[in-house]
Every structure is written in structure tokens, then in C-alpha cells.
Amino acid sequence: xxxxxxxxxxxxxxxxxxxxxxxxxxxxxTDAHKGSAQNIKLGLDLAGGVxxxxxxxxxxxxxxxxxxxxxxxxDRAEVYSTESSxxxxxxxxxxxxxxxxxxxxxxxxSLGKEGSLDFVAADDMSYDEEGxxxxxxxxxxGKHVKNAEAGTQQDEITKNKEYVVQLTFNAKGTKxxxxxxxxxxxxxxxxxxxxxxxxxxxxxxxxxxxxxxxxISGSFKTYQEADSLASMIRIGALxxxxxxxxxxxxxxxxxxxxxxxxxxAGAIGFGLxxxxxxxxxxxxxxxxxxxxxxxxxxxxxxLNGLDITxxxxxxxxxxxxxxxxxxxxxxxxxxxxxxxxxxxxxxxxIKLGFDKALSAIVDGNVTTLIAAAVLYIKGSGTVKGFxxxxxxxxxxxxxxxxxxxxxxxxxxxxxxVDDEKYFGVEKERKQIDFIKHKSKFFIISGVMIAACxxxxxxxxxxxxxxxNYGLDFVGGTTYDIPFSAEQKIDDSLKKDVEKTFQxxxxxxxxxxxxxxxxxxxxxxxxxxxxxxxxxxxAEISSKYSIEEDxxxxxxxxxxxxxxxKSDAVIAVIIAAICMLIYIWFRFKDFVFAGxxxxxxxHDVVCVLLVYAAVRISVGNTFIACMLTxxxxxxxxxxxxxxxxxxxxxxxxxxxxxxxxxxxxxxxxLTRSINTSLTTFFMVFMLAILGVESIRxxxxxxxxxxxxxxxxxxxxxxxxxxxxxxxxxRSAKKA
Length: 734
Description:
- By secondary structure, the chain is α+β, with helices and mostly antiparallel strands.
- It has helices spanning about 5-25, 35-40, 45, 65-80, 105-110, 170-185, 225-235, 250-280, 285-305, 310-340, 345-380, 380-415, 440-465, 470-475, 490-505, 530-545, 560-585, 590-615, 620-650, 655-665, 670-690, 690-734; strands at about 50-55, 85-90, 95-100, 115-120, 125, 135, 140, 145-155, 160-170, 190-195, 200, 215, 240-250, 475-480, 510-515, 520-525, 550-555.
């Protein structure tokens, strides 16, 4: 029985929710009227800035030493930007992101210095021949300062407001400072504040200070001057000596270009997905498209509300999720059309479609979440950003598919859209004999695996490495140098750039490549020191009239690159094992789990073939690409396995199993093709319009989508049948 009022109410609630989220996204509730989308925190690859990772020189630093160092590094970083982020990685590393800085060389040169902050009595201060302060005794050091803050107070004589720095010492510092001020007060001598050999301030002692609270006054014209001194005192000496192991400098313009091209790719891909869904699935496709809009605006609000930093791979994750989000809808709509073919009413078909699709949707998305979780645990930086948005997208897309789409369909039905012509009826599909051609499928896969091995061996013999490892995997320093439109990149320019790098680095190990689609050179060399990078950047800027902040620099130590290699292998193994266990548990049959994992490894090898044959740079997104393929491919496999389990019943003979597998793959064929197409649309646009780092991610992903569709349709079911048949024969022999 139709309830038009209820249907209209549901429709209005959904439209209102989309409208509210859109308002928050575009306009927001802040005084500045900035929407959620404008307030989302951007990672360095989008906002520009400096990213640097330090490692403690000391073996096994204590938790206290690490936490104190992080606190001081946060203060140091905030001198450059209040949006700075300082986090601990592992037991002995600190990762720092400072967005929007203009002088990257200055940051890299000074940020991680151990530093020294000393309070020196006037009687102990002297100067060398060049005028630099020298001393042997100190009143106290930066380690004795508990806090330093800028503030205001009233001048006792003029009664005017004056800016001051308020110091608080710890217990040891209080005793030492009290003794020093007692000695200096009678003649009002100065106590010098010296940071890294430079005098920051030299206030005269106006009273004995015995309670550990001192005020520096009288010399600050503005609050900013007082705050600057307070910051320098706070950042004092670090508890741990640090060494740089990884750094990256990104120009703001590069980040803006990445956002623009990625959003354009997402918009075009989204339009193609909506058009495809409406044409192919009619009213259900329209409902799914509205649910996709809901997904997008809620995702933007969630990113801002949860204070998640959005990176370029994160943007790619959202765009990829648009393609994957319709997967659940495709499964449901296929089920609805099947029920309509059986003669069920539209209302019953909608209900049964959602009920029968539920297990496949849940299982498929849980396995993809496993891949996202492994990515988050084993990845770092931008890879974590991709894992976060991927996981959020999976959860949110499940909600929109199972709740929002269902409400929309029921609402439209209640409002009179109840003719089955609006939903489409699944035509009787003739069974395709996949089992008959299983040997051909296995031969094709064998050829692809062999081709991968040949490509890897060829690369090793000709280039010394099996893959085109990027900086993340080999260590070193890389420069992305954009030239003006008037500056033509030719062999002469390349040789000149190469010589510049060789002269400053002291090494002939320099590799130069043109960046496709841009008037830009990518230059890789050995790992350079901070001073070498500073000198090289200044030389390039001066020699070729290039703004320093437009040059992107990345430096990674060999130790970190070795870790990334091992992490890539371990991540895929962990994901495969977790999925094996989950599928075994859900399907209560090891053959299902084993077949799925073998097919996954097949897909990984095929994507590896693309990396090897096309010589795509293997960087930090390599892990993300591989695990995304693993999660995506297993999703498609589970849909087929779920249908096999449903059709299996009590049929166990070889002939019956043949029909079950052929029927199951045939029945899910439309879903497998359509889901691959919608995801292909999104990733294809990224591959065409995205910046280079996104293309390096999208191209292998395209190969993985194609290969995943092939393995799901042609390999997984036939492989399950083959193993099942072999086990049956073994049981008979026993």
C-alpha cells in the first residue's frame, strides 16, 4: 500500500539534507562566510610548503625525551606557520609539515638544529676579534625555562601600556636565576640572552627574582617584537640531537594546479558516471546519482569536521570512491531487475533486491576496508591521507547505497513512479560456458605472469634494477624545475643544468628527464646536505630567472627508502592474509578464500608488469596503488562467490558445479562490467588531466581495474571450480 505523504516526507528530508550540507560546504556558518570546502586543511602537496622528517641520533630515546623534543619542535615550526603539524612516527622519528612558508631553505637550515639558549651574566660576557659573544659560564640554559609568553603591563612611571616577555623557570632554573639576580641587582647589571651565538636581548636586572617569574620590559615597540623573543626563548635547546632523513619543498602554485586539474577530472568523471547510471538503470540510476551527490557533500563536511588533512592522493581517493560508490547500487539494481523478470511486483522487487544484495555488499566493502587499514598502518604522509579518504568513502558509500538510495526508490514508488518500465527488467541471459574455456583463461594469465618476469629480468640486466624506482625507494635528492614559456628546454639546457648539479653535488650521478605536458625538468642526484640544497636552489634561481618558491625539492635518505621497499611487500602480504582469513570465515570454505587470494596475486603481478614495461616511477603511491587494486579486485570476486554460494545449495556433482559456476558468472556479468566502467571513467579522467604524480598513480590503477575485471570474470570462478574438482578427486582416491 502506497503512502504518498511518507514518500514525499522522505524525499524532502533527503533533499533538505543535501541542501544543508551543500550550504555548509559552499557558504558555512563562520563570520567570514567561508564554507566547509574552503576550510578543509590542505596537505603540503596542495598548499605548498615544507615537509621534513627527523630521526633522533641517540639510540632508543625515552618517551619523555621524544615528547619534550616534539613540544619544542612544534614551537619552532609555529614561528613559521601557526598551521604547522608536528607528529611522532615510530619510536625515534618526528615528522613536521609547515604549509605556506616562503623561504624554504631558511626553514630546512634552522628547524632541526640542536640549538643553544643561554642566560649569561654581564661579568662573564666577552667578545672575540670579530665581535661575536664568548663566555664559559652560564646563569641557566633553555632547559631551565618552563615557559615564555608575550604580554602587556602598565609602566609604573608613565602609566602607559607596554609590551613585555614573561618568563617562568623550572625548579632548578628558579634557584640559579635567583642567585644571579641577587648578584646583579645592586649595580643593575645585565643578563644576556644568547641563542646560537647571537644576543637576543640584554635586560638589566631591576630586582632580585626568587619566585621563578621574570619580566623583560622596556624595549618592545610592538607586541610582535615581544612575541618573537618569547618564541625564540621557548624553542631553546632541543633535548635530542636530530638528523634529517627526508624532506620535501612544494611550491604553492604547483599545489593549486594539482587541485584544479584533479577537480576538473572529478567533475567530468562524475558527469559520465551519472549519465551512464541514468541511461542504463533509469529511475534507480537517478536515485543513485542523487545519493552520489549526498555522498560528495557529506564527505566534504566530514573532512572539515573531523579536521582531516587532505592530500593529493586523498583527492584521488575521493574521486576513485565516486566510481566505486556505485558498485553497491549496481549490485542492488541488478537484483531488482532479476526479481522483476521473475514476475515480482516493483515494491517486492525493490525490497528483495536490497535484501539479497546485502551480504555481497558488506563482504566486499569489509575486504576493501582491510586494504585501507593496512595502507594506513604501513603507509606514511600522503599515503595515510589516501587511506583515510578511501576508508571514509567506503563507509559513507555503503550508507548512501543501503539507506539513502533505498529511501529515494521507495519515496519515488510511493509518489507514483511504479511502472516496471522505469526500472527495467533483466532479460533472460543465455548461460556462457566459462568452464569450457578455463584452460584458455589460465594460459592468458600464465603469459602475462611470464611477461612480467621477462620485463623484470630485462630491466635488471639493462638498467641494474627491476623497476624504475623513484626517490622514495632509492634515496637521494630530486628537483622539479619549472622554466618560463620563453625558455626552451633542449639538449644544451639539459647539459648546463647537469653540470650545475655535478659541480655543487660533487657527483656525476645526475639523471635529468623532461616532465610530460610541462616545460619542466626533473633532476635526480645523490642525497644532498642542507647547505648544498640551499646553494643549488640559489644558483638555479639566479641562473635561469626562476622563483625559488616554484622549485619543488625532495630529499630522502637511503635508510628510509629501504624501509619503503620492505613496507610495500609486507603491506600486500598482510592484506592478502587478512582477506584470506575473512573470506574463509564468511564463506566457511578455504577453497573460496584460496581462489580469491590467488586471483589477487595474479592482479598484483599484472599491475607490476605495467610498472616494469612502461617504466612508470615507483614512488610512495606504489603501495597505495597495489592495495587499492587488491581491495577493488576482491570486491568483484566476492560478488561472484556470493552468487556461487547462493546457487550452490546441495549440488555437489561435477556437472552441477559446472552449471553453478557458469550461471553465477553469467548472472553477475552485467554488474562486473558496469562497475568496472564507472570506476574506469573516474580513474581515466585522472590519468588524462591529473598532475604527474597522480598520473603515475592512475595509469597502473587503470591496468589494475581492467585486469581485476578479467580475473573476477574469467579466473576466480573457474579457479574455484578447478580446485574444488581436484579436491573431490583426491577425496575419492582416499
